Amino acid sequence: AGAGIADSTKQPMPTTVHVVSENETLWDIASARAGDDEDVRLVIDKIIKINKLAPNTHITPGQRLIIPVTK
After folding, report:
1. What dihedral angle (degrees, nearest 10) is formed by the CA atoms of 37, 30, 14, 36?
2. Quick one: CA torsion of 53, 11, 19, 45, rounded to 10 degrees?
3. 4-21 residues labelled b (16+ CB within 10 A) or e (exposed)
């Protein structure tokens, strides 16, 4: 589990660290983490923002990403 990242409401957002696997995409990671009623695209946006990634960034195996814990 990660430390917590402040979101727009200034409440700490629980996070975890994910190590990217071979052929894994942001969609794969976000869809595994999204809650049942959460839009995967919004989770991807959070991952991009937390990790300060450029839009359309290609992730690579072994890369460590901070992921919001949503469920």
Report:
1. 20
2. -40
3. eeeeeeeeebebeebebe
Number of other CB atoms surrounding residue 44 within 10 Å? 19
Read off the pLDDT of residues 2-12 as tens digits, 9 standing for 90 and up. 555 554 556 67
pLDDT, greater one: 3 or 55: 55
Please name the residue that has the structure tokens 């959460």.
38
Supply 30's token pair.
Answer: 């976000």
The pLDDT tens digits of the residues spanning 35-46 come to 888 899 999 999
